[in-house]
Amino acid sequence: MLEGKIVGRCMQRHGHQEFIRFLNAIEAEVPVGKIVLVLDNYATHKHPKVRAWLQRHPRFVFHYTPASASWLNAVEGFFAKLTKRRLKRGVFRSIVDLQAAINRFLNEINDNPQPFTWTADPDKIIAAIRCGHQVLDSIH
Fold first, then answer.
1. What is the pLDDT of residues 13-51, one digit of tens each?
2. 9-24 CB burial, b ≥16 within 10 A, e <16
3. How many angstroms separate the CA atoms of 9 and 107, rounded?
């Protein structure tokens, strides 16, 4: 994040084994320092084997976004950019073609990385959250 480099992997499944493999890839590509990951509440991210892995790797810190708050996770913006610039209207004759397109996009981004800059006004975000809570409270 700080340098704008994206660590990405295409995998056939999204289970805890693949997530641990991805964590190991991050560890290999980020040789020093604390690693903070912002994750959604997908069960894979909280699997007992993932928690055990996390205990053995104290430089990793997980933060989970609240339910229905994917917009807090910067990777969602990257996924939107990937979709808009590479996948939307794309024609992929196989999973291999799709993975190749994704990997080319990752390489292009990493050839000229741009650090993520949060541009949203925190006061507006907090106000929107409060408004949402008021609406939800009025329904119940």
1. 889 999 999 999 999 988 889 999 988 888 899 999 999
2. eeeeeeebeebbeebe
3. 12
